[in-house]
Amino acid sequence: MSSLISSIFANRGQPGGRVMPFVMILLVATVLASCLNLFTPEGSALHVSTYTITLLGKYLCYAMLALAVDVIWGYCGILSLGHGAFFALGGYAMGMYLMRQIGDRGVYGNPILPDFMVFLDWQELPWFWLGMDQFWFAMIMVILVPGILAYVFGFLAFRSRVTGVYLSIMTQALTYALMLAFFRNEMGFGGNNGLTDFKDILGFDLQSDTTRIVLFLITAALLSVALVTSHWIMNSRMGKVILAVRDSESRARFIGYKTETYKVWLFVYSAVIAAVAGALYVPQVGIINPGEFSPINSIEVVIWVAVGGRGTLIGAVVGALLVNYAKTRFTAILPEGWLFMLGALFVLVTLYLPKGLMGLYGQLKDKFSGPSGPSSANDRKTSDTAEGASA
Amino acid sequence: MNMIEERVSKAREQASEFFRPDQVWPFLVPDQPQQVDVSKQVLLYVEGLNLSFDGFKALNDLNLYINDGELRCLIGANGAGKTTLMDVITGKTQPDSGTVYFGSNINLLDRSEDEIAQLGIGRKFQKPTVFEAQTVFDNLELSLKSNKGVIPTLLARLSPTEIQRIDEVLNIIGLQEQRFMLAGALSHGQKQWLEIGMLLMADPRLLLVDEPVAGMTPQETERTAELLQSLAGERTVIVVEHDMEFVRSIARTVTVLHQGSVLAEGTMDQIQANKDVIEVYLGEDA
Predict the structure, then answer these.
(1) CA-closest candidate to residue A83, choices A337, A304, A367, A366
(2) Do A151 and A269 contact (CB within 8 A), yes or no?
(3) Could you give the CA distance from residue B280 to residue B257 in angstroms, rounded to a whole number?
(4) How far is CA A123 from CA A100, A112, A115, in A?
(5) Is pLDDT at A6 greater than 90 in this prediction?
(6) Cβ A238–B153 below 8 Å, yes or no?
């Protein structure tokens, strides 16, 4: 067991560390939780309630979003404060499909138009709703719309060499602008109520335990795929170029890499992960509204990543799970206090855990293995440069 | 009636001209990095370069020709335009006017930094700049001469010849033992060498080296001088340096820059005897 732990945490030197043991633990844990839900009687000590399963599924979606931010921030030094936008766009695409699935079971019983359109007295579906009743088409849109937005945004921003704080502000503005747009009823996305009252997905009832468990398992599987893919990218030469861009972009340019192109494609990759996370989130939570675009959400994601340890992939997942678990528990006790907690957490992590929880193992090891050897000096250097790049 | 026919035939003519089967539309022509033409023995032509920043003339009608295989030293006081000149050659800064040609056929001014780098122009910065969070080996791997597009880089695998090449360069820069150390943990002098090694990996035609011996011990300086001299001939090297001792030890030709233009050019002895240079460097009372 201890060798397993050290193999997960011993990620010094190579980017990403070893991700496979972690993926195994993740998959085993999700399958176990599902079995406990399905095959143990309610009231048994081992029973996992469907509520818990849904909650865990939600956490896994957040973990995927955190992973997306880690890829772009931890590895490439691009602090995106607008990843919530891609998450929400993916969610809306899924929401539109689920909305069309309601059919004539809505309050107004219109077989084509969702309730809010009937309420607004619209006569026919707007063009961008066409085709969204097909699952495959909706899934293509989940990836395509946020992907294209990320490409256009990245192309414009990176080609003009906007970096650092300015870029962060722009991403923040992006998500804020989208939030305001989606709040408008005329946009055709349900205004501030968003899309909700979903009935079923691909014919399966969204309220049934089995559907929820399948969604939960799919989320875990896709999170694993995202982890493994990201790990592969970061360990390829492309990953080395991405680190090089983070630490010294002009040097990378002068040895012949077109750094803008690398940044744009990494940004698109990251946006697509966030969008898939959003699409998985909506059927499990049952609602998507413009609140998901709110800037504060995107900032929270950055805190999850910082807590877990950026530039480690696993850290982002761990951070998202832990912070969200804490949030669930804490808001039950003292709802008003949560934001203060979150702020304090961020300050403490920045001060005492510059490499997050994933760096804790290394920090403790250095402390107890006597005055630091050369390797610990390396680590500190590394975290310094990472800090410099993100500042 | 005639007029319409005339127009139609004219339009048809234009269309057939546009769709000529023997020609490719300009935007579809792949812009292959051309082979540099050095048949005139000159590798770099810098002519009539002007550049001003907010009224300050950083470069003032600067002309400079570098022969193929030469080792040239650029000297000059602070603000003489040495680093700005390097910025222009490597595509970081666009001049207000003037031309920069690599060989007699490649215009460097319409190319971006990465394209210029891929043509075989390597640059070492004044402050040693290496990728500190990565190992010495990775730093060199990144600098390999290879297809630098996103997908080829994603799928790239080190071939035995490439590993051999990295070993070779590690040998030249004397960092074999540090190959798996993080570059950030190297000493200042070692970083300078690693950066020169990164340039060598790309097998460049022209090396621009900005203050290579700043902050080096005398022994390190000596080794750097040897290294740069061994490179000349096969490659062309331009060195910017303040350390006169060092310049004297390596240079055959020295160019003195002053206020953005060339003040004098010649061997070290000629330069030291040059009246203009003495005046500028030592003041009027000399």
Answers:
(1) A304
(2) no
(3) 10
(4) 16, 10, 12
(5) no
(6) yes
* H-type alpha helices, chain A: 2-9, 20-39, 50-73, 83-102, 115-119, 135-159, 164-183, 209-235, 237-247, 249-254, 259-285, 295-308, 314-333, 338-352, 356-368, 374-390
CB proximity B118 to A under 8 Å: yes
The whole-angstrom distance between A163's CA and the closest CA on chain B is 17
Q: Do B132 and A385 touch (CB under 8 A)?
A: yes
Secondary structure element (H or E) that encloses residue B79, with its range: none
**Nearest beta carbon to residue B150 from set A240, A261, A377:** A261
At A72-95, the pLDDT tens digits run 999 999 999 999 999 999 999 999
- What's the ipTM? 0.83
pLDDT for residue A383 is more than 80: no
In the predicted model, is pLDDT for residue A129 greater than 60? yes
Q: Which residues of B touch A255 (CB under 8 A)?
A: 117, 122, 142-143, 198-199, 202
Distance from CA of B180 to the nearest CA of A (A): 9
- Read off the pLDDT of residues A16-40 as tens digits, 9 standing for 90 and up: 457 999 999 999 999 999 999 999 8
Q: How far is B143 from chain A (nearest CA, A)?
A: 6
A302 neighbors A81 (Cβ within 8 angstroms)? yes
> Do A237 and B123 count as a contact with CB atoms less than 8 A apart?
no
Dihedral sign, Cα of residue A62, residue A63, residue A65, residue A66: positive
The residue ranges of every structural domain in chain B are 71-91+112-282
Say what percent of chain B tops pLDDT 70: 96
- Least confidently predicted of B92-96, B137-141, B245-249: B245-249
| Nearest one of A352, A350, A342 to A391, comparing CA atoms | A350
Confidence of residue A210 (pLDDT cuts 50, 70, 90): very high
Determine contact: B90 vs chain A, CB below 8 A. Answer: yes
Q: Which residue of A has its CA nearest to B154?
A: A238
Average pLDDT over residues B229-242: 88
What is the rounded CA–CA span in Å between residue A105 and residue A206?
14
Residue B244's H or E segment, with its range, is: helix B244-250
What does the pLDDT read at residue A17? Answer: 55
CA-based max dimension of chain A: 75
Contact A309, A16 (CB under 8 A): no
CATH class of B71-91+112-282: alpha beta
Dig out the tokens for B65 from the structure. 């020709």
Q: Which DSSP string do the residues of A208-256 spell out, in sequence order? A: SHHHHHHHHHHHHHHHHHHHHHHHHHHHSHHHHHHHHHHH-HHHHHHTT
Which of chain A's residues have a Cβ under 8 Å away from the Cβ of B199? 255
Q: What is the pLDDT of residue B21?
A: 76
Question: Is a pLDDT exceeding 70 seen at residue A380?
Answer: no
A367: how many CB neighbours lie within 10 A of its CB?
11
